Amino acid sequence: MLHRGIQQWYVPLKNSPALWLVHIQRGRCFIGYKQVHTTLSKRFLGHSSYSNVQGAPRTAYLINRRGLHTSQCECTSDGSSSSPGVDSTSSGAGDRQRAKAEKRRRRREKIDEIQRDGEEAPGSRRQGAGQKSWSKKEIVTYDIPTPPGEKKDVSVALPRSYSPSYVEACWYDWWHKMGFFKPESLAKWRNPVEEKEPFVMCLPPPNVTGVLHLGHTLTTTIQDSLIRWKRMVGVPSLWIPGCDHAGIATQVVVEKQIHHEKGITRQDMGREEFIKEVWRWKEEKGGEIYQQLRQLGASLDWDRDNFTMDQKFSHAVREAFVRLHDDGIIYRSSQLVNWSCTLNSAISDIEVDQMSLPGRSSLKVPGYADPVEFGVLTYFAYPIEGSDAEIVVATTRPETMLGDTGIAVHPHDDRYSHLIGQSAVHPFTGRRVPVIADEAVDMAYGTGAVKITPAHDYNDCEMGRRHDLDSLNVIDEEGKIVAEGTEFQGMKRFVARQAVIQALKDRGLYRRTEDNPMSLPICSRSGDIVEPLLKSQWFVKCSEMGQRALRSVETGELKIVPAVYHKTWRHWLANVRDWCISRQLWWGHRIPAYRVEIQGMDPADMMENDHWVSGHTEEEARDKASRKYGVDGHRILLTQDEDVLDTWFSSALFPFAVHGWPHKTPDLQEYYPSSVLETGYDILFFWVARMVMMGQQLTGELPFHKVYLHSMVRDAHGRKMSKSLGNVIDPLDVIHGVSLEQLQSSLLHGNLKLDPKELKVAMKGQRSDFPQGIPECGTDALRFALASYNSQGQDINLNVGQVLEYRHFCNKIWNASKFALSAFEKDFSPQPIDEVLRSATPVDLWILHKLATTIQACHKGFNDVDLPMVTTALYRFWVHNLCDVYLECIKEPLSKTQTEECMTSANVLHTVIDGALRLMHPIMPFLTEELFQRLPRQQNDECPSICVAPYPTLQEHPFIDEAVEEQVEVMLEVVHAVRSLEGMLGLKRGQSKVGITCQDEGVLSNLRRLHHPLATLTRSPHVDISSGEAPPPGSAVLAVGSKCTAYLHLQEASNKAAAERLLARQVKAEHQLSKLKTAMAIPNYELKVPERIQLSNRMKFEELEAEVRSYKELLASLQTMSR
């Protein structure tokens, strides 16, 4: 936050009704964002141009939107800035700084041009795709001084309308201080359910690399809704927070930061100092992530917080490695790994993106000034030894031919059968290259002859093993050629590609190139082309553990929902490869393995991958080595492996390491295994399967018995959210609101990864999707929106307009509750509902029945982790049952104070508002707490918070009454028919006399009993209900099912005007139908038009046909009645 300081300035911004707050404290300049005529925003935006701030100090810290320091700079007299920490007079530093300054200047010029291109004339912004129009809402804040952790003052009047800023203030700190999130605390306020095991979940630990995105928000929403529901049901519930150190991702980010700020590399700093820098960065980012989780309402037990690099967790990681190594499950071997030459490290499969190329394509590659060409198949010839014959091969990677040790053909390919068993001669080294036969060769690809490079291709490696071919490393860790005695030695791999092709041409061995559609492996962290390298690394044997994990799903011991992912589970685990866990990084769990050297023993007598021992400490490892080799400890020299473990290794231990494993702690015995795991489907193998394997191997049981997988969150157009598209939505922007100018500034000043061309595309995308920015929607609306999407099986296309709709829904709940509070008399004390039902009306009984069926739907939805079922039931109850019907019907009875009718309505209203708020609480925690605290309570109800209030049950609300439901539903059908008539005729509500004719005596009797609510909802002072008489002349008629007819009695003038309006609407609908019919009749319509458009057209066609038909029938009835 900004602290109170010595001086402040407000600086006007160009083209913006806002001010930058420039704030001085102890010689530092803090810059924040302030709307005119409003209180200072809690979210700040960094900016680099403060040369126009008169008297500003030389040193300034930029503050990002979450109020955290992002960079420091020295302000010069001309407004430029330079980074601290580098002595510009030191050797070489000045040149580097000038080059960097020039680079920044050029980038700034391009960005300024982009900004100018983005400026639009007032009123020129169109509505964004899928974004409904919105007007700026009044932001009301809670300004009563409340110390953190103290309860909010609920004695003051509620604001006129719903404001998320007001509602969400103070509650979270109070919940946390009261201990509502701790499983041990539930018994303080209510009796836990007897003989129930605790409900336990672990938050999938977000990476410490940055802030939470919408995928995290979806996970948080689903998990928090489940844990709050379980807590209210009476089950002791534990939700464990944590943060992942994210080794490779974090190291990359921090390296970029120190290079950007200080112009140095991690190698310049040294390992120890760099690790300290990462820890400082972690403390900043980790706190920011946890603050976001609090803003989302996540009811986590913060006293059990875990970080995967803390002391407790690190001990668990070392113990797991040592045990698995001692058991022979972890071993060291030379195998192919995914290698990033830019990161100089092995990377996991999840960090490899596959880029599809249609053919010849030029791509930027880190470390290369010019684009590199891919998607090309190069043909060249190998001369056959001792003859004039040759064999032509084709490859997409000509540079790897330097490591070829074989040429493979299919055994049934007659073109090459005479060459099988012979050898070719390598043109650059003279090495003999045998021609082998293997059925894996595709005879139709290229020439049908395949070069084999076992050290640089996974398929070639397998084939090389089958045929006992040598593996020659010809590319090193930095991506340079290792081919001593050749002209290519030391060249970069893609420079060598062209050099090899040229050398082949010089020797007359080059034949041709052709386009080749292919998939290119890209490192997601660096953008580099992944290089398979043969390296000595640590591996985990996965075959046996994988089979055990596979059987657990097949036997039903482990349940995965949705079941469609069973096939994915089998695909990954049926033939699972051993897992490389070595990473050539500094940030992470250093591998607790030690290379052994024994004084007096020839190193040649020890296998390279066998002279290793593991241990928690060097002393433990020395003792193991002494026993293993039968020598005294003083003769043993140990060197710890410099590498660190794959982040997924420590993550795989999360469900039990958080409880203090390997120690048998009370938490481990009480809360392991977890009840449920809820996470995204994209990490089913990388995290979920590995947790299952490690849990079964190290603890002897599954870490959880149910896995619920949700889908990916995409933008409104179905695109993956990407910074380069400008469609990444920050959850806090949706919660607090953000202007288009702020969104654009975030791209300009906070995203160094985008080049100016990408930046232009991103900014255009933002202007298109968010022309008015994003309105303040609040946490509850965002949570409800995410919970409403069908998250199991289909990706979620998040529409901010939909979130805004649910903000309006929050306002509806707010107004309904305010109405109820105003209706309760000052000394109102709710009575047990059973005591007032004797005087209840059918509508009272109907709303209680609707509450009971909503309770059923909510319990089923939560039990099945089907949150859309819950949100659908709650929305229907609040909007369509409570607000649209019941509140309208009881306004008159409530006005008759001190009557039995009034007391009955008030008690029923209290019952349904109280029940509906408690049903809603797991998904909308803040709004429901604010309103629940103000509801009158029954005697002896001392529940301090809705967090620990009982979740409604049918035992509490046994009001299922299908007969009453049927009676009222018929009445509502009549109301809808009347409203439909009024809509089609263009009449105001209640403008015409309403009548109903009914053939069925039972229905007739019920409608007469419901005359008052029927008249209220149709806004007709009197509704004529008769038993079969024909509607009077001049009436508009509409059938209601098979037993009733509703009509509006029109005056002659109204009848004529209504007929004219109907005819005009009929003509318009017929014109639309004709145009659509023409569009659907084009030649090859089924082939040319996308299937989704065809489906939409069919639906629209049927709707228009029904619309035209109804207009004709209504016109006919008007004409008949007028005769």
UniProtKB/TrEMBL annotation:
Its EC number is 6.1.1.9. It holds the Pfam family tRNA-synt_1. Residues 109-123 have a biased composition (Basic and acidic residues). GO terms for cellular component: cytosol. Keywords: Aminoacyl-tRNA synthetase, ATP-binding, Coiled coil, Ligase, Nucleotide-binding, Protein biosynthesis. It catalyses: tRNA(Val) + L-valine + ATP = L-valyl-tRNA(Val) + AMP + diphosphate. InterPro entries: aa-tRNA-synth_I_CS, aa-tRNA-synth_Ia, Anticodon_Ia_Val, M/V/L/I-tRNA-synth_anticd-bd, Rossmann-like_a/b/a_fold, tRNAsynth_Ia_anticodon-bd, Val/Leu/Ile-tRNA-synth_edit, Valyl-tRNA_ligase. GO terms for biological process: valyl-tRNA aminoacylation. One of its GO terms (molecular function) is ATP binding. Residues 76-92 have a biased composition (Low complexity). Residues 73-155 are annotated as: Disordered. The keyword Nucleotide-binding applies. Residues 1050-1121 form a coiled coil. It comes from the Eukaryota. SUPFAM superfamilies: Anticodon-binding domain of a subclass of class I aminoacyl-tRNA synthetases, Nucleotidylyl transferase, ValRS/IleRS/LeuRS editing domain. Residues 171-798 form the Aminoacyl-tRNA synthetase class Ia domain. Signal peptide: none annotated. Belongs to the class-I aminoacyl-tRNA synthetase family. This is valine--tRNA ligase. It comes from Strongylocentrotus purpuratus (Purple sea urchin). The lineage of its organism: Eukaryota, Metazoa, Echinodermata, Eleutherozoa, Echinozoa.
